[in-house]
Inverse folding.
């Protein structure tokens, strides 16, 4: 599996375009700049299968409808945030001075529990990692050694917990009990900022010491 990190929008949220040898593709967190993401996908002759959302904050969902309509693909989100896509208060777009409300239509599929998610030639372990938001999930591909952590874990930092539904202690528990249990060489592909590894964050992340 290959992946391309695409920082988009005013908050430079990381959208990810995943692909395999069969040219199948998944889109993770298309937060903005839908036309640019479409161009990248078509430039590489990829065949998108679905959109996966680590959570439903506005900066992660802004291009969802544009991509889902262009490629006629379904959207997956955790059931705890099924109504956030259409609610600009819950998804946070009304709380930030971005000049517009951000909404999307309801997801096609709800993630209701942890487990295996297989789409075409892609297979992920889905971890519930709430704390930044109540429906935050992380997608782990063991074969590629990568976890898409959304806004749970960053290089040298963790997700903010002062937005609706945030819980600092819950986030720390999610990180320690789910993400830090992965092999230390696992690449962490976060919702903002550069990629890192589980081992690097175990050794250097100041927010994870003393838990």
């Amino acid at each position: 599996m290959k992946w391309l990190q695409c920082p988009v929008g005013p908050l430079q949220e990381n959208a990810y375009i995943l692909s395999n040898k069969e040219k199948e593709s998944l889109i993770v967190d298309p937060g903005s700049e839908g036309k640019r993401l479409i161009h990248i996908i078509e430039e590489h002759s990829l065949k998108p299968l679905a959109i996966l959302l680590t959570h439903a904050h506005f900066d992660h969902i802004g291009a969802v409808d544009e991509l889902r309509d262009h490629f006629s693909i379904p959207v997956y989100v955790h059931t705890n945030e099924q109504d956030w896509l259409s609610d600009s208060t819950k998804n946070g777009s009304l709380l930030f001075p971005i000049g517009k409300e951000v909404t999307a239509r309801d997801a096609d599929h709800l993630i209701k529990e942890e487990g295996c998610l297989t789409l075409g030639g892609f297979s992920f372990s889905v971890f519930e990692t709430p704390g930044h938001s109540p429906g935050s999930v992380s997608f782990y591909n063991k074969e590629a050694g990568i976890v898409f952590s959304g806004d749970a874990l960053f290089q040298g930092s963790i997700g903010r917990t002062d937005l609706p539904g945030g819980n600092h202690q819950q986030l720390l528990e999610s990180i320690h009990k789910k993400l830090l249990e992965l092999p230390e060489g696992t690449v962490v592909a976060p919702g903002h900022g550069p990629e890192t590894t589980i081992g690097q964050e175990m050794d250097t992340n100041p927010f994870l010491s003393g838990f």
